[in-house]
Amino acid sequence: MFLDRVDAGRQLAEALIDLRDQPDPIVVLAIPRGGIIVAREVARLLSAPIEICLTHKLGAPGNPELAIGAVADDGTIILDDFLIHSLQVPRQYIEAERQYWQIELARRAEVYRGGRARIPVKDRVAVVIDDGVATGSTLIAALRSTRSAGVKSLIAAVPVGPRDTIERGLSREADRVVCLRAPHDFYAVGMFYRHFEQVTDEEVIEAMNN
Predict the structure, then answer these.
(1) CB 72 within 8 Å of CB 58
(2) What three-state secondary structure class fits 5?
(3) Exposure b/e, 74-110, CB count within 10 A at least 16 = b
(4) How far lies 109's CA from each of 60, 114, 129, 167, 210, in Å?
(5) Residue range 156-183, pLDDT digits in tens
(6) Which end of the chain has fewer beta carbons closer than 10 Å to its terminal beta carbon, N or C?
(7) Taking a C-beta distance cutoff of 8 angstroms, is the pair 41, 9 a contact?
(8) CATH architecture of the region 56-112
(9) Which fold has domain 5-54+118-208?
(10) Is the pTM above the cut of 0.85?
């Protein structure tokens, strides 16, 4: 059990402390909103710059909480073909969702960065962080997006996630996966935090600037 995202971030930072001794430049990439609070603690310990990596799940028709895939702000998309086929989701619906969220993520990027340029990740060690994963779809979209930008090495780091997602999902996408808690019985990320309040846009902007 983590006290809050700051506590989880500090514990995750200790698990990644070996990165301070490697010669290649590091960049910490956070998935807003909750991931930025965790990532800030990692960036501080590693003395690394922090950047956002915007992704969003694609919700099923009539059930937006059910992820049928995810999209990143650069257009990278992953789809759950089995679920899409089972629910008979039209391709037109998927394309409309992709377009909507790509526009919305671009808007959020402008708000969070305040107009500054994106920190480059090419030829760097990229550590992609969220406050936890369930299906892993949004984090996988972030990893693929980051990989395509030409990073030297790709690390996925989360405080908690189901063992199946970690072993069968993230491990196939990243060169290294760091997960502090990977239980077989998993229902929701928030179950592993004593305090798990919603993070506001203002808190994201503050975390990026501190």
Answers:
(1) no
(2) helix
(3) bebbbbbeeebeeeebeeeebeebbeebbeebeebee
(4) 24, 8, 17, 30, 17
(5) 999 999 999 999 889 999 999 999 999 9
(6) C
(7) yes
(8) 2-Layer Sandwich (3.30)
(9) Rossmann fold (3.40.50)
(10) yes
